[in-house]
Amino acid sequence: MSGRNPQITIADQIDAWLPQTQCAQCGYPRCRAYAEAVARGAADINQCPPGDEATIQALAALR
To answer: Residue 15: which residues within 8 A CB-CB, separation 6 or more?
Structure first.
């Protein structure tokens, strides 16, 4: 057993790194919607203006 929780999706992991401002500057209405788009490859990891370089690097590592 790997110790990983199979209930946690890549979208969950991406969403956890986002600042949760719900500002829609990324083009999505909520951080979760953006996270789901990134997870399915429909959005780039650098579309979150409130996110910093550490956020972008963390998202890159998750992909």
So the answer is: 31, 32, 35
